[in-house]
What does this fold into?
Amino acid sequence: MQCLGMPYDGALTGEFRIPVDAIPPIPLDAKKILARRAAMELPKDAIVNLGTGAPEKIANVAAEEGISDSMTLTVEAGGIAGVPYGGTQFGASANAMAILDHNVQFDFYQGGGLDVAFLGLAETAPNGDLNVSKFGTRLAGAGGFIDITQNAKKVVYCGTFTAKGLKTECRDGKLVIVQEGAKKKFVNQVEHITFSGVYANKVHQPVLYITERAVFELRPEGVTLIEIAPGIDLQTQVLDQMEFMPKIAEDLKLMDERIFRDELMGLAND
It folds into this structure.
């Protein structure tokens, strides 16, 4: 066995390469929706970090859309380029250009080598603070989260809008909330500050918060709603599901309808 529940795969060790289209597409669920929107933030020729959880799916979307070769996707375990895997295979990358020692990869991150970092979204406060490390008696810990986010030129947080029981569907290019999650993620105050929105504003670091139904941007005045999914009601399905009232951009836009359809979005042609 090579990874948890996975037999040896030479594509993860550099023994051979596999065609990118051999990686099966993932189903169109809430996490793929936000991964698709996040993939629109992938600059050409950028060096990118993908964190564990929802951001893992960005690698699948990039492979499906045929854009994974136009940027360098990295993971903290040391993989450079190729297609990072998720789930119990997180940390491994198929077709990697190089595999660095873990500590050397972090030297690169801490030195400001990342153009964009994509990480998970948990508790988020009005000032942009984020908590992914402590929830009641459960101490998840920060891991490499702080090292990665502090010196990245841009940070994009990805996660579902609510947690515990959220069910969604896509119909005719629109998002439908079948069952709302029981736990709100956008809260008045985070329990633990793993990322400081105040500091990010101070150093003018661009920050986005991407969910399946809305996109927020960190501005000097706080977390600001800039996009909403087609089919979603602003009041009942966004504002009422938050503990605080976000700033709302004057030019509030609809998220791209292609995100909510089964067929490829055509990002390679954008």
Observations:
- The CA atoms of residues 33 and 259 lie 6 Å apart.
- Residues 24-263 form a domain with the Glutaconate Coenzyme A-transferase fold (CATH 3.40.1080.10).
- The chain has one domain: 24-263.
